[in-house]
Amino acid sequence: MLPQDPYILLSMINMKLRNQHKSLDDYCLSENHHKNQITETLAKVNYAYDPHINQFK
């Protein structure tokens, strides 16, 4: 289950992307999460995924 707080989600996702996964798609596939749910939640607090640096900014 993903954290409901967008800032906790941001921290968790960026840590996982930095340490364990080569892309957001890779993370979602291996952790069985919906990419749209993550991107929409983080967009509400003005963060978007940047595939070039593999993190939300």
| Fraction of residues in helix | 40-55%
Q: Any idea what the radius of gyration is?
A: 10 Å
Main sheet attributes: strand count, strand direction, barrel closure: 2 strands, antiparallel
- Report the β-strand fraction as a percent range: 5-15%
Give the number of domains: 1
The unreliable regions are none
**Category from helices, strands and their pairing:** mainly alpha
Inertia-based shape: globular
Mean pLDDT: 97
Protein name: DUF4250 domain-containing protein
InterPro entries: DUF4250
Pfam families: DUF4250
Set out the fold topology:
Layout (H helix, E strand, L loop, with lengths): L5 H14 L4 H8 L3 H9 L5 E2 L4 E2 L1
Antiparallel strand pairs: 1-2
What does this structure look like?
With 57 residues, the chain is mainly α. It has one domain. The protein contains three helices and two strands; from the N terminus they run H-H-H-E-E. The chain has helices at residues 6-19, 24-31, 35-43, and strands at 49-50, 55-56. It has a two-stranded antiparallel ribbon. The relative contact order is 0.22. The mean pLDDT is 97.
